[in-house]
Design brief:
alpha+beta
Amino acid sequence: MESLREISCTACAGAEPNVMYENLPQFSGVAIIFESHFTVHVFNCSECSQGWVMVWIEVIDWEEGRDPTYTSIVPITDIEFQELIAQGKDVSTDYIAELGQTRRWLMRDHTDGKTRVRWVDGHLRFCAPG
C-alpha cells in the first residue's frame, strides 16, 4: 500500500497551522468541483510535492451576510490524488471524509467573524466541528 510522503515540509505541514493556510496560494492544483458554496480542490505542495485535497463549504444562514465557512485540507497519496481526479464532479464526499481518519489534517473555520485554523485528527467534518 502506498504511504504518505514524510510530512515535515514547513510550507505545507509546519508546526504552526496558519503557515500551511497562508502558503495555499503558491501550491499548484486542480478544481474538481467549483460551486458558489462548495468546492473540492486537489493540489501539491510547491516545496515537497505532498498531495492534498481541500473541501470548502459555505453554510448559508441568511443573517447579515456573515455565513460561516469551513475548510478541510487533508494530505493524500498519489493514488488517492488520481482517484479524486478520476471521480471528477461525481467525487464522493464519503471517500474524502474517510481519508481524515488515519492522518492529521488542517481545519479552518470562519464563524461569527472569528477564524480558527488548527491541525486535527480523525474523521473529516464538512461543517461545524463537533
